[in-house]
Input
Amino acid sequence: MTTWRASAKASFEGFSLDIAIEGGPSPIAIIGPNGSGKTTFLRFLAGAVKAELAEFVLGGTSLVDTKSDLCVPMEKRQIGYLPQGYSLFSHLTVLGNVAFGLSGTLADRRTKAGHMLEDLDCSSLAQRPIAGLSGGEQQRVALARALVVEPELLLLDEPLSALDASNRRSVREFLSQRLELFGKPSIMTTHDVRDVAALSAQVYVLEGGRLIQSGSLSHIAREPASEFVAEFVSPTTIL
Amino acid sequence: MSFQRLLSAAGGLLGLALAGLLVVPLFALAMSTSERDLVAGIAHPMFLPALFLSLKTTLISLGLTIMMGTPLAWWLASSPSRLTKPIETLIELPIVIPPAVLGVALLQTFGRQGLLGEVLWEAGVAVPFTSKAVIIVQIVVSSPFFIQAATNSFRKVDPDTLIVARTLGSSAISAFFRVVLPVSLPGVTAGVSLAWARALGEFGATLLFAGNMPGETQTMPLAIFYALESDLRLAVVFSLVLVGVAGIILAGLKSLPPLARAFTWGQP
Output
């Protein structure tokens, strides 16, 4: 069973982050208003943002420990990252995107990427350029690209925010099924309480770069620690 | 006729006038020569050495510009440092400085009594009035065009694509070559074209810093200038050939991004 724990203290221009979270293989959701540090924290875990004082242990392996000057580079962390808007490589086909992180012979890479696309019900997209894909298709391709390298932790930064309302529901269901099958830790940031409910995720609330509350969705709904949380879990938001 | 239509017609006419101004001189050049002049001009002893020197020096200066300018452009585009803005302005300065001024400045730098010239001279390296000087001039006048275009192109690359590439196992350098460069290829190629065109056409600073020695520092623009003083027909032939060579290379460079895209889309 993969577990992880991370703590980070960092100062940026006009913003500071001070957060400590730990989790197991079940998904967790980080919520918070814009500018609360959700994306920064995910980027810290991915290795794109450095913190002055930090520790990050994933599956028993220490990836960051500022006390001993340890900072494993991004490419060696085995972390999958789905940024907002998916950031697919526009110069490659769908198959090229999915095979990007694979090693081995061309035939092996092609086969493995093809199987992953098949697994996510989008093998028909394999030879398509990125420019013509719908939001939902892009999301599947980005997920396939992240999952095919078998990461130990999956980071999803507002994975449904780029989709229109009609697509969001079906993609949300699809995502929760895939994360369940993934069986390893995943962290998702979101502005939508329905994403949290679909994943049955443990919720962490960030405000101003600090963790102000954590617990199950029902727990934070019962005792919201701030106006933002109260608004997030209010019945009108859910409806 | 409505005001909108009038405005649109006026805009069309102005555009046509500008296009004419760009194209008509080239037609005039082509019309003012004959087959016999063309053959005689190409056979002239000044022609091949000047053409060869122009192609050789511009290819070397372009290669060096790409090699040194690409990391600089990437740094300017991606570094959070506050130094990037003033450094970018300094780099772009040669675009607006008259070539004659650059020629004098290069003499003051690499000349025998110059800032670096004295040390170089003692080390047995003479720069002014050699083919090395031609290459240095070309780098100074052309690299700002490449750096400017490449920097603007790199700035358009979504930083998250780099993070994704890194998490997928690419090192920083590999992510640059596998993602940043292919995505920004159209802009980078435009920079290469501009830089190469500027280097090929360089005249004033070369004349001052490298001189006009046939076979050594006489590039095509200098050969045209020299021919113009004695034989207009020869100058026209040289000019026409330079237009042809430039056109072919420019077309080749412009076809690079679609070719590269067709290649990468097929991967793996």
Notes: The domain at 36-265 of chain B is CATH 1.10.3720.10 (MetI-like fold). Chain B touches chain A through 24 residues (CB under 8 Å). The CA atoms of residues 36 and 255 of chain B lie 33 Å apart.
